[in-house]
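To whoever is on call:

I kicked off a structure prediction for a single chain this morning and the downstream step that reads the tokens threw a length-mismatch warning. I double-checked the sequence; it's 589 residues and nothing unusual in it as far as I can see. Pasting both halves so you can look.
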Amino acid sequence: MNAPSQASTQMFSAVWKLLRLRWQINLNSFKHAKKSRKFWTILGLVGLLVFVGFIFWLSFWLLGFLRSPELTKYVGLDILPFLQAIPTLIFTLMFFGVFLTSFGVLLQALYLSNDMDFLLAAPVPIRAVFISKLLQAVLPSFGIAAIFALPILFGLGVSGGYSLLYYPLVILMMVTLTLASAGLSALLVMTVVRIFPARRVAEVLGFVGAITSMICSQSGNLSRSWSDSGEPSSAQLNGLTNLVTQLNVPWMPLNWAGRGLLELGEGRWLSGFLLLSLTFGLAVAAFWFALVTAERWYYSGWAGIQVVTNKKKTSPLPSSVTNKVSLIATVSERFLPAPVRGLVKRDFLILTRDLRQASQLVTPLIFGLLYSFIFLRNGSEPPAGRGEAPDWFMESFRALLVYGNVGMSLFVGWMLLGHLSGTGITREGKNYWLLKASPLRPAHLLAAKFLVAYIPALALGWFFLVGISIMQGISLISFFYGLLMVAMCLAGMNGILLGLGSAGANFAWEDSRKMNSGKMGCLGSILAVLFLPLSFGLFVGPLWIVSVFQLPIIYGYLAGLILGISISIICAWLPLKMVEGRIAKLGEA
């Protein structure tokens, strides 16, 4: 009878010991940190406390204002059902937020951490290791959720005059729902890792996270371009409050915690305790089930992570694909030396296989689609203003707006070149000595890096140019002129970024997300930003001049081609020629 209780005591004692050791490690790291880091850490904690106090004060004031009868009379909307749905909304968002954020943290803690071998060999219960890892993974998510949720829930209780029992039960419900959500997230981690390699899953998570954050960061611009006015209307606010109220249904288990706290705070003890008891029981059961199940899956899967799978048989390619590949190979063999072809093929394979690199490559595509939508929605007509501008000015301005597609294409190409070209040599890292030891000419290396950065940027730029041109319905001569503009401007910008980035190449990086080319790479980025409007102006400026003076348009095209192509060729060739002699000496002390 005493054996289970003794085992539980040993397990919880081991969990406490592991958590205490982790806390001791963090405390020792703080003690031995630099004074500047200590100062900023303390300042950050004080700022966090001030921020929490501000949120509490703001929520208390706002919720009290929303409860005022004057507001209800002025707006004409009963706000009380919306206020009653706030606890339910907060607990639901917290549950799913912890579930999503804990997935990546648990994946790192359980499968990609460096201390698991040591912990599994330590004289502590295996379940204690898993619980401690789970708690360490969920504490940051719980802390972030508590910073925003507790002030609102406490402010709701203070403004509504709820009973004192409401406040500790809020914390209890947050803890239990957080543990249940983290446990279910751990189950999902085990299920995914039993199918896919853990490191590949981590790369996919990084890719999805980068894309999601990029879309969310631009959602404001998209919503402003979609709506006619920047401020929400009363109908939209009424629709939002009605939606939140309709989601507060009594049959959904995630709503029981919020509804139970509301019932308890307003003095309906029986229904409140019943809903809170059901929520607590279901959360504890879900956490325990997830703990036991995930523990078994984890330790059975830990020994089977390094699995040798059977090599898949490669299916023969269709004849059409084979003909295309042979045509490309023939053209590349005729114009490119063998070392250049080999380096280009190798770099493209690396870029397509590393999803962390791919997430940064997709960023220009997302920005391009977003701003292209905004550009096309606003139209290609100049703003009317007061209507006092002369006709020649409006006509010339309208002619320049035709080449807005070129500006958008250069924008996405610039973003892509900033990643591929500026770090072209730096991306080799500590393996650069292999290239130095090989019979490879510096000119071949620079040519390969130039093509690896230029081909994707040119393809993406032309993709946007073709799409926007079709939407605008521009003439064929303007379209082909735009194709040449994009090709030459990207070539010049590529030469600047690659040349100065190679001069300041840094091969000491450990994380590919922290690659940089030092001060020379920063200078290259600045010069590329300056070159972009200069080259665009040299191509388009003559068209504006001939439009102002009402000259034949062919003169504008000829002058633009001469000026734009000349500056682009110089910027594409000169930086690479200047840095060619330094390539063989890179990486030497």
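Update from on-call: the warning came from a stale cache, not from the record. Cleared it. Sanity check on the structure: Residues 126-160 form the longest helix (35 residues).
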